[in-house]
Design brief:
12% strand, binds thiamine diphosphate, binds iron/sulfur cluster, binds magnesium ion
Length: 304
């Protein structure tokens, strides 16, 4: 990775606004082990968004973008919905696909990139709402898992179609009444993590975005396993505060309540044996790297 994407032309440096100077100076492109703690300085990937104020989807976006292991060589595939409103503000390559088609587009893209750049790592990440992933796009979603396509699917689960005013979705909880589903949901929430496991995903995690460290870890696991082994799936609860009648600062409490024992979003993970082996190897390598860096620092301090 490099910082080449945002270097400043020397001749213009003195007239560039201080915000831009700061952005270039602190950009996290090229930083090893970038993560959610870099949110303040990883502004090069997302500075603003056009979602409702306090929308948990915006928080999820920031954690994901700050934690990408390889942002310059990552391509997102999005779909219509509130999720897609963020992509025009994001400095990561992305494709907007026809609603529901995102996993089919990502399959072709990943294969084409592997042929075009055989010596480079190119990560493909689908990011779409529950309506796109589970309802209208379910066929495309599952077929990509059956085919063992090597990319990550992320579903922002807000349990309804938010962008079109609140229709019922397969991930909506039983009995919930939405603005455009006034008689209430008759069926239980579809258990997509279990379906993903049975359809061949190697790493699956369902969680809220209340704890950034967890989101970072799940995202990194999902991307590395997809890169080396096969399909991975993340389902993140990002409640639509507008639809459930909450204020902009109440999204966090909603997520915390829903992940308490017995709640709909208690964190769950399914990991195949092959994926676990890879995750353990990567963790051991990271530990050794940190130990070596610490030893080198101590040696430098002593000799100074
Ligand atoms: C092919 C097609 N069908 C339907 C629509 C209308 N549409 C736009 S957004 C949307 C729902 C999005 O819901 P979801 O995927 O859950 O995303 P959210 O807005 O909740 O984040 C629908 C049905 C469309 N744009 N294209
Ligand atoms: S409508 Fe709901 S999901 Fe969409 S931006 Fe607003 S709060 Fe977020
Ligand atoms: Mg939705």
């Amino acid at each position: 990775m490099s910082k080449e994407k945002i270097t400043m032309t020397e001749g213009l440096a003195d007239i560039m606004p201080p915000e831009y100077q700061e952005l270039v100076a602190t950009a996290t492109y090229g930083k090893e082990d970038r993560g959610w703690k870099d949110i303040g300085s990883s502004k090069e990937l997302i500075e603003q968004h056009s979602l409702c104020a306090g929308c948990p989807e915006s928080i999820a976006f920031r954690y994901i973008l700050a934690s990408l292991p390889n942002p310059e060589d990552t391509i997102f595939v999005g779909s219509t919905g509130c999720t897609s409103l963020v992509f025009p503000h994001v400095a990561v390559q992305n494709i907007h696909s026809l609603f529901g088609n995102q996993n089919a587009i990502a399959s072709g893209l990943k294969r084409a990139l592997a042929r075009r750049y055989p010596d480079k790592v190119k990560d493909v990440v689908v990011l779409a709402g529950d309506g796109a992933t589970v309802d209208i796009g379910l066929d495309m979603t599952m077929q990509s898992w059956f085919r063992q396509e090597k990319f990550t699917t992320i579903c922002f689960d807000n349990e309804l179609y938010a962008n079109t005013g609140g229709q019922e979705s397969g991930l909506m909880q039983k009995g919930f009444v939405a603005k455009m589903a006034p008689s209430g949901k008759n069926f239980d929430k579809v258990r997509l993590p279990e379906i993903a496991r049975e359809a061949g995903c190697h790493y699956i995690a369902m969680l809220t975005v209340s704890k950034p460290g967890r989101v970072e870890k799940a995202l990194k696991n999902a991307i590395m396993v997809a890169r080396e082994i096969g399909p991975t799936y993340l389902q993140l609860y990002t409640p639509c505060i507008l639809e459930i009648g909450k204020q902009s600062m109440e999204g966090l409490d909603e997520m915390k309540e829903s992940e308490e024992i017995g709640g709909r979003f208690v964190m769950k993970e399914y990991i195949s044996d092959q994926a676990q082996e890879l995750i353990d190897t990567l963790a051991a390598e990271e530990k050794a790297r940190k130990k070596a860096a610490k030893a080198a620092k101590t040696k430098k301090t002593v000799s100074a």
